[in-house]
Task: structure prediction
Amino acid sequence: MQVLKPSKENIKKAAKALQNGELVAFPTETVYGLGANALDSKAVMKIFKAKGRPADNPLIVHIASKKQLPQVVEEVPKKAIRLIKSFWPGPLTVVLKRCNSLAKEVSAGLSTIAVRMPSHPIAKALIKEAGLPIAAPSANKSGSPSPTRAEHVLKDFKESIVKYLIDGGSCRVGLESTVIDLTKEVPVLLRPGGITFEQLTKKFGKIVVSNISKRPASPGMKYRHYAPNSKLLLAERNEIPVILEACLKKGLKPALLCSSPTIKLCNGSAKLVFDLGRKEKEIARRLFAGLRELDSFSPDLIIAEKFNERGLLRAVMNRLKKAAN
Ligand code: TXA
Ligand code: MG
Result:
């Protein structure tokens, strides 16, 4: 894999590679994506192979303008138009009836397709230059935390069939897009993400939250995700100093993944610490980088803070619970 700086010339080079059926990793405002031409079965199959992704877990298709929608979906219902107007370009993915010209592997045999228009200037420029709908899951090996910096992608795919990685620095949102299914009578929130449940209901009214423990409405939700190699424990703020002390007494090597106020509570007794910051935007942005960084020290236990499931912290908790599974 070759790392490219995001120049005009390099975007052209990467777009050519996509047209030729190669894989290109690129930054979006949420996380880095691993892209392929969504019209080309062979190219799409390369994504599944490189990631080690189960073939029954469908991908998100990325477009650069609404004009590309007819290449991806059969029709755009009124309720979709309302959401698209409010939240595109940005971290919202809508599930609609798919169009036949797409490679069938993209949607893993489903009759629906997940589509979004990213707001990141490099993602937009690349998709526009390629002139294609681009299938792109997060650019991590299946099961590991999503990549929010180019070095994360490099770590997972250095020796791989991925042709290029465009280095666009850190991702602004740091969590994946919100996925909402609009093929049902009442829209179903399949994955909380960069657009909050509160933002959506304000625009939309009633939305059902899918209960993944009962039935995985989104195939990807049944797999273990975002998991560091180290054991991860979720704990309330006030329990954390106690758990930390108990670990240290036993001679264990614990690590803290917590907000700044919680870290203060621990009076400097932990050696391995990743400070997530204070504001929910910061916490969301830093979460995956924190998981990866702490994991690289192979602690006996990562103690992560439980947050109230409101706003962006709903998505943060969704990822933490999966990492703790
Ligand atoms: O922010 C993002 O969404 C990032 C960037 C790269 O755009 N992409 C991303 O893709 O997170 P991925 O593949 O890691 O997650 C896609 C999610 C999975 O949970 C998958 O099951 C769900 O979307 N999904 C895809 N197509 C679907 C469909 N037709 N019906 C229901 N869920 C679907
Ligand atoms: Mg992913």
Summary: The two ends are 32 Å apart (CA to CA). The first helix runs from residue 8 to 19. The mean pLDDT is 94. Residues 167 and 280 are 25 Å apart (CA to CA).
